[in-house]
Amino acid sequence: MIRVLVADDQDLVRAGAVAVVDAAEDMVVVAEAADGGAAVEAQRRHRADVVLMDVRMPVLDGIEATRRLVTGAADGSVPPCRVVMLTTFDLDEYLFAALRAGASGFLLKDAPTHDLLAGVRVAHRGDAVVAPSATRRLLAHAVPRLPDVAARTAAVAVLSEQERRVVGLLAEGLSNAEIGARIFVSEATVKTYVGRVLAKLGVRDRVQVVVWAFRHGLAE
After folding, report:
1. How many structural domains is the chain composed of?
2. Which pLDDT does position 178 carry in this prediction?
3. What is the mean pLDDT of each run of 10 residues along the chain (220 residues)?
4. Is the same domain home to 120 and 158?
5. What is the per-residue DSSP string for 2-62?
6. Which structural domain range is residue 161 located in?
7. Residue 179 CB contacts under 8 Å (≥ 6 apart), including other chains
8. Is there a single domain that holds both residue 25 and residue 75?
9. Are 82 and 51 in contact, with CB atoms under 8 Å apart?
10. pLDDT of residue 129
11. Which residues form the Response regulatory domain (predicted)?
């Protein structure tokens, strides 16, 4: 079971998210919080796997709470977890702040129920999810910062030919199983390739790999 903590200062919204998550067969809500500070304290006590975090909350906002939760406390009293940001406001400032804070996802509160649950599952397995409307703007922000050809060639050289193929397929939005079928290897082998790519590029998740791919010419 995926242990979920729901943090939102609006009682009705929080209750709705709790109901949606608890209705899923593979998830359980272990705690609720009405502000970011309470979310950090709840994580100390309940040790959730994934936190659904509102952006705008009193006491401690969702961005700062996310920053504390993804790293955890140095003494181990607050275990690190994955955070999926939920917001009513589709604003770039929230998107970029959430990703910089270490969030594994950024979804709008009006997203379909299945998208919310999929976001929790994606974050739990170590990947990332971004609302489609925000993905286009994220890439539009990254593409103008493309390095020159020499720098791109040098950066790409750290990857093997097969790893470069995997990166390109990740940028197409393919799952591990779909990538495996495309390059004729098992899903487990694809996971190994993805892990190597993350380590070589020094990035945290698949979203950052996709941004890297666009910046370095492995995706259009």
Report:
1. 2
2. 92
3. 96 95 97 96 96 93 94 84 88 81 89 92 88 67 55 75 91 89 94 93 86 79
4. no
5. EEEEEE-S-HHHHHHHHHHHHHSTTEEEEEEESSHHHHHHHHHHH--SEEEEESS-SSS-H
6. 146-215
7. 166, 169, 170, 190
8. yes
9. yes
10. 85
11. 3-124
